[in-house]
## 1
Amino acid sequence: QLFLCLITVIFSSLLHAQVLPITGPTTLCVGNSIVLSDATGGGVWSSSPGTVAVVGTGTGVVTGLTAGVETITYTVGASYVTHSVTVNASPSPITGPSSFCLGTTAVIFGSPSGGTWSVSPTTVATITPTTGVLTGISVGTATVVYTIATGCAVSRTVTVLPVPTPITGSTLVCVGGTTSLPGTSPPGGTWVSSSPSIATITFGGVITGVAVGTGTISYVLSTGCATSPVVTV
């Protein structure tokens, strides 16, 4: 009988044990996770209302679903403690070009406004932190990150494309005369004249002077990247 009494007292003590406070972050971003913990072992995690965030019942891992406030509860027997978690909205997906040519610039956009831009590695591209203006430094890919005041961020990969090698050869031609520009690299590009009334160019790179003036001859790759010397007639 004494043994049963002791068991009852112990069980009752465990049932109504003091649950220590929950520890861990109080904020997270939509789509991200945080880990909460409680030094009182053997408990179960739950969340309310359950539409803002969810928690692993046995892990304390909280995942943000939508912006708002979620109450996380840790229950041991008949005792429990709570912990409020604020879920902050993440920025909208980054918009603007996903690729641009080496040596040129491109502008990308983030929402809401007022965030800060960063890029890595900076050996491939650099970015102006407040404006989102990218500059291609070397051919390759880089990751752009847009971070807002809450610390929530969104990222995107951008590609810096190669440009053709510089065009060599004479860029002076007489009216009615021709001059040839050597092939540039890589092959497969297209020759274009910005002012065909001044100078024309064939697929093979032969310029014909049409009228006195200056015009731009471009060798354009399928990516749109080009090299463009000025031709004088």
## 2
Amino acid sequence: MTTSIRMCSLLLSAALTAQTTWVVDAGGGGHFLDVPPAIAAAQPGDRIVVQGAHTYSAFVVDRGVDVEAVAAAVVPTVEVVGVPAGERARVAGFRVQREGGVSSVSVRACAGAVLLVDLDEFGPAFQTTVGRPGLEIRDCGGVYVRGGTFLGQAGTSSGGAGALLDAARAVLVGGRFVGGVDVSTFPSSGNRGETGVRLQNGSHAVLAGVEVVGGSASQGNIVGGDGGDAVGAFTGSLAIVLAGELVGTPGGWGSWLFGDDGYAARGHVRFASGCALTGRVDNAATPIRVRPGLAAPAAIAAGGTMQVQVDGAPGQLVGLAADLAFGYEPAPAFDGAFVLTPTAALVAVLQLDGLGLGSWSLAVPGTVAARHRDVFLQAVAVGPVGLVLTAPTQTRTL
């Protein structure tokens, strides 16, 4: 069964209208030669387009602006700090050259929503005393990370997680997260792998379609290093993994003692039965069943039509919710449920067929205002606890 609807009014009413578009081009073809002065000039709601595969300076986003590298520009670090409540910051498309001793991508103390899209870290991080996480999210209430590659660093005192959430709420969709390494200073002991995604101090996160790998252990003359855990949630935190691959890495060889294998899920982690798990699962981590499921194309041209498919129970009533505010919060009261932001709208409802299948055909308006928008979709079904919202999927209008 298919339901056809137009998204024009939803898109245009919920979208953030850009006041000004600033162009950054190190080759001299824009308003600015580097990113920091463009951010300083921009006002909330403005868009900053970074052109060319050039190397630009590190930058800090402190307001609700959209900063997008359209040709994979390179920067050493990306920081989003102190975005005020009611504003929404977006950073997309950058390649991040790894350095030692600093987090490659850091989001801190943001009351407003933050969206990170396709930020790819590359290159070796030079070993330091304290290895930093590839992505850190601290003291933030609404961060959405779509795609990207985040690599924890190596450290002689401690290594960094692929992603570290500290007193934060976030949704991680479709990215790759790899833990760093605790480097042993004794040849008798091997290196220990760090956690791929670590949550602490009351953090809550939902992971969907991710690849999470613990850091690699190494052998030692006497004691082998322990393998890295994939996902760990501690000190009142909760991780809900709705789809993806979690790999706890094997321990290293030692002539006297082998290192322990890493956990696929450790601590308060709930994972859907469809997740691919490699490694141990501890007693606190438990499987959950999530249905219905939702699938949408990654991108759609303005003026085009996209099919969004849903898989649920036969005859089930399922709605489609859309939100351009990217401010989702995982709801700890119900595993797999979400709280929609006030700008979200339930745009269509259909009844699934005898096989539990259905789809929506969404027509995107061909206007300038409808381009370059991140549209977040969820399936909403009637469940035993009321409305149940499944894992989000995201579509980018071109």
